[in-house]
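Encode chain A's predicted structure.
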Amino acid sequence: MSTNFDYTKHIINREPRDVTLQIGEEELVLKIRDIPKVKKDQIVAEHLRWDAEGGTRFDTGAYVRECLKYMIVEAPWGVTTDAFLIQLKDDEFYSALEKLVPTAFTSKASNIEVPKVKKE
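Encoded structure for chain A:
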């Protein structure tokens, strides 16, 4: 079977990369790895709760922390842990880190057109 489909365009880069964040007048250099969709979905599922009425509650803060712990491979503070992240007092610093995290939910699915099925 021959195909021109290039699957390599659809997989993450396994090698960590350097990212420079601007925090005030300072630059912070981190080594991060991309998060695969399956891992991201797993983290989303762990922080999504259903209530008795069928509604949902999503813990955004826990989602961001889990993603950051997975993604940050090398940082000046060493290993990125909950203990480190929950003691951050600077909104600007936390917001810069938060921008590294992929959006938990996307609306791409709503753009998919579902073909109508004929009843016979």
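Residues 109-120 have pLDDT under 50 and may be disordered.
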